[in-house]
Amino acid sequence: MMELGYAPLTPWLPGRLPGMSPLAMADWLHRDEAFAAQMAYRDRLVAERGEIVLAGEGCDGAEELLDLVLATLAVHDRDYEVGEDAVRRPDSETVALDRSRPLATLGRLTQEDFVILRKGPEDAEHVLIGAILCFPSRWSLAEKFGRPLVAIHERVPVYDVGLAPRVQRLFDVLTPDRPLVRANWLLHPISELHQPKLFEGNKKPHDPTGRFWLRVERQSILKLRSSGHAVFSIKTLVTPVEALTEDQRQSLIAALEAKPKAMQDYHGGSAFTQMALAALRAL
Ligand code: HEM
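Above: inputs. Below: predicted complex with protoporphyrin IX containing FE.
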C-alpha cells in the first residue's frame, strides 16, 4: 500500500508558521510501512518520467547530498546495506550507485524527495538549482527551477511579507548536521502521490465518490557542509480520512472551519472546503 492506515503527524493543530524544530541527524530521514510500495513507484517514475521528476541533474551539491544520504543510512538504518557501488534497500531491491546521476540515484534510495537551493554571494535568497521530486502536490519543477524562495511561493497567500523573511533567516542560520523539520497538510480528493502540475489550467480533479485523503508533507531543511547549499526534503504521507482517530477528525474539522478565505481559494475554492468538511462530518 502506498498509503498509511493511520496519521502519524497532525500539523493542522494550531501553531505558528514557519514552525520549524531542530532534528537529530538520526531522525532526518524517515521510513514507514508504505516504503516498499512507494519505492517501487519511485523506481518507475525515475525510469520513465525523468523529464518531470528531475531537474538540474548533477548540479553543485548533488553528489555531496548523495554521499550524505548514504552515510546517514549506513549509520542510522540497519536495514540498508550500503556498499561501494550499490545499495541494498530494506525492500531487498538493489540500487546501483550511479555517481554521474546523483539525483536520479537519490530518488531510488529514500521515500524523501530532495530539492537543492543555493544562495550565491550576490543573492538575497536561496534559489532552486536541482531536485528529485517524485511526489509533488500540484506543482512542477519546470515552473520553479532557477527561482528564489519568494517567487517559488508567489501563489501561497500565507507566504507573505511577515513569513518570507523569517523563512529566509532560517535558511541563513542553518548549520551542517543540524536539520530543522516542519510539516504541512492538505486534503486531496485522490490518493495519487505523483501530482505534478503540468500547466496552469490543470485544475484539481474531483473524485466522484467524494472520498478524501489527508496528505501530510514532513519537510526538513539542512545545510551541506562542503558546498554550503541548502537541502529541502519532503516526505509525503497519505492517509484516508476514514483512518483518522476521533480526536484527529474533530481537530481537522476545526482547522478547516478556521481556514482563511484566501487559503481556501488557493486550495481550490470554498466549495472544495465545504465538500471536505461534509465528508469529515459524515464519518
Ligand atoms: C522551510 C520553510 C518553508 C516554509 C515555512 C514554507 C511554507 C509553505 C506554505 C505555508 C505553503 C502553502 C502550503 C499549503 O498549501 O497549505 C507552501 C507551498 C509551497 N512550498 Fe514552501 N515553505 C518552505 C520551504 C520551501 C522550499 C525550500 C521550497 C522549495 C522548493 C518550497 C516549495 C513550495 C511549493 C512549490 C509550494 C506550492 C506552491 C504553489 O502552489 O505554487 N517551500 N510552502
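The first strand starts at residue 21 and ends at 22.
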